[in-house]
Amino acid sequence: MLKRQLTFLENIHNITDESMEKKTLNELKKKLEAEKTLLEKDLLKFADKDKKIPYDYDTRFPELDVAARPSAPDENATEIDNYGNLLAVEHALELRLKEVGEALEKIKKNDGGYGKCENCQEEIKIERLKANPAAKICVKCANQNRK
Ligand SMILES: [Zn+2]
Description:
By secondary structure, the chain is mostly helical. It folds into 2 domains: 78 residues; 33 residues, no CATH class. It has 5 helices and 2 strands, in the order ααββααα. β1 and β2 form a beta hairpin. The longest helix has 37 residues. The model has no long low-confidence stretch (mean pLDDT 84). It binds zinc ion (ZN). The site of zinc ion has 8 residues, from α5.
């Protein structure tokens, strides 16, 4: 009986040793969830969620009514310019939302995938995850990619 209990305790010890501290993981999860909410809020200001594709949003095209305002073509040109800017912003927000969402999914899966470098499978340093909880690759691989 005692021996079995000891083995049990040893196993628990091994588990906590290998995986990230639960408290840290919870903090990162909270950070990710907060960022996700903010990103979604920002996106919905000018884009509609595409229900078929996860993390995909479609920027609403400003209503151009040339016929109603034939005397103001410049105004329409400005609207089109704005639309181009919005598309770029939407794209950046969408990419970030995808990263954040995927990181959250990994945490939910709880199979040890979160916090591991997708490139070399090494653990991503906790400082890096604290700075960017959605980081997918370690510093070493990120630097290599930049070259
Ligand atoms: Zn790596």
